[in-house]
Give the backbone structure.
Amino acid sequence: MQRKIIISLFVAGVLISGIAFWQYNKTHEDIQNIDADLVTTAVDLVSAFSANEIEAEATYNGKIIEVTGKIKEVTDSGIILDGNDAMTGVLAVLEINQDLTKLEVGQTVTVRGIYTGKLIDIELGRCQIINP
Amino acid sequence: MTRILIATLFLSLQFYGYGQKYFTKSGTISFFSKTDLENIDAASKSAVCVLDAATGKMEWSVLIKGFQFEKALMQEHFNENYMESDKFPKAIFKGTIQNFNKININTNGKHKVMVDGDLTIHGVTKKISSAGTLEIKDGKILTASDFDITISDYGISIPNLVKDNIAKVLKIKVSGTLESLKS
């Protein structure tokens, strides 16, 4: 009986440590495989922020957003989608596995990423290009 | 908020002079924590920097949630438990490059500089001073600096369970290629 308890405790211990180790070392889940919480366009997203930034922040905080827009600029970290605003666009910081070379200014794309915050542009992190 | 930010980034610098501004919104800020147990690094490549070439005043801002970690759980703890990024979404540095007026920004060249200013992280502002380089290259200004910060200075508490995994002093690297802002 006592032996069984010891063995059970040992197995439980190994399992728990295994799960903890796996959780600790887990990398990010691919955004490609997660459904977006919200779907919008770059123009609508920018106008939501210029209308009421506090409200928009509350709506988008922590959400996975799918955004369609025209590429205004290709930067070192990703692409900026045109928000029909001189100052603000939607900066999609792309995952490193994404190919930036096939993207061109003026092209319409759809990206999916996590809302990160807003400095000048509205920033989406860990973005994947959904279309094309 | 938008107006406040734009005001901070652009208009506030106007009070110090009407010189040429240099700007980037794809600056890189990374930090590195080294302990016997593990090394942790994370980076953001979308830091914003404005430099006023008339005065040498410089301002950096970065979104805390923009820092990417390799491990998902680490990034979650960094944002939720340590940096409280919903409450303090940005880190901001406002400072001045010393002896900036001695640098000819119209001639290519690499210069060693000292920058002094206020660094705000986790809602706490501290004076810092850091050495860096400023390279003038074909009308662009390439900036780079490394410095250390002590986590406890910024009111960030690390739970006992992981305190041996996270260094007390972090190495920070900042760099960016600033381009002339057409106004």
